[in-house]
């Protein structure tokens, strides 16, 4: 077993807790998704330093994510749809050590707390950041603009407040942004118009006000724009109607 490199048990009926005394020094992939696992994620998982893919999607895991996960050589980190909790986000800061991380998915947990400024120190290789339905509070940190390689940013269905940071305009690789179903207010920042690769923009179900930036009509890649359930006051910019690839423009409930 000490030479084992991959473990995959998908959509089975595995139950019980994850082992604490695990010794698999060459393990590179651990996928135990859509099972019935309970208990917490052991801090000793931090000793599996060769793991690149850790996928514990859709189980019944609980407790806080251990900071020791930052010891891993992670490329993909998926723990969505569990019962994980904790509001310190201490584990999050530890993941800044994972310099090759491309996928980060903690959606549908009760992590609560606020996103720390260290979000801007995550891997320069990060492409997908999923934290939907986590009961996250507070503002979106301005440091999020440092994630210049992120293509998908999903922070919908949380308790986010404050303004949409203008620094999002620095996320040049962004193709999809979903920050709907929050408590965000203020204007839609014109800096979003700098995202030339943006295809899907979901800002609905917030408290945004002011006008829709005219320059959004210059984003040739836009396909879906959802702005309903806000307090916007302007007319629809004419340029938006002329976008060839636009499939859906939703301004009403």
Automatic annotation (TrEMBL):
GO terms for cellular component: membrane. Keywords: Glycoprotein, Leucine-rich repeat, Membrane, Repeat, Signal. Residues 87-234 form the Disease resistance R13L4/SHOC-2-like LRR domain. It comes from the Eukaryota. It is found in: Membrane. It holds the Pfam family LRR_1. This is LRR receptor-like serine/threonine-protein kinase. It comes from Forsythia ovata. The lineage of its organism: Eukaryota, Viridiplantae, Streptophyta, Embryophyta, Tracheophyta.
């Amino acid at each position: 077993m000490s030479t084992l490199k991959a473990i995959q048990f998908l959509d089975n009926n595995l139950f019980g807790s994850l082992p604490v005394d695990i010794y698999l020094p060459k393990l590179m992939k651990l996928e135990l998704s859509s099972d019935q696992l309970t208990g917490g994620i052991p801090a000793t998982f931090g000793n599996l330093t060769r793991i690149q893919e850790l996928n514990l999607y859709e189980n019944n895991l609980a407790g806080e994510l251990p900071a020791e996960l930052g010891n891993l050589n992670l490329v993909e980190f998926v723990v969505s749809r569990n019962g994980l909790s904790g509001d310190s986000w201490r584990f999050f800061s530890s993941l800044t050590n994972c310099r090759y991380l491309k996928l980060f998915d903690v959606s549908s947990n009760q992590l609560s707390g606020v996103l720390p400024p260290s979000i801007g120190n995550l891997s320069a290789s990060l492409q997908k950041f999923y934290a939907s339905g986590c009961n996250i509070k507070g503002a979106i940190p301005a440091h999020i603009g440092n994630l210049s390689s992120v293509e998908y940013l999903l922070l919908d269905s949380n308790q986010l407040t404050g303004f949409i940071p203008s620094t999002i305009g620095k996320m040049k690789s962004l193709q999809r942004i979903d920050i709907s179903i929050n408590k965000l207010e203020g204007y839609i920042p014109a800096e979003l118009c700098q995202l030339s690769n943006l295809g899907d923009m979901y800002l609905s179900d917030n408290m945004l006000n002011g006008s829709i930036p005219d320059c959004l009509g210059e984003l040739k890649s836009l396909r879906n724009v959802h702005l309903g359930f806000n307090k916007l006051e302007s007319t629809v910019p004419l340029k938006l109607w002329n976008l060839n690839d636009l499939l859906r423009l939703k301004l009403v409930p």
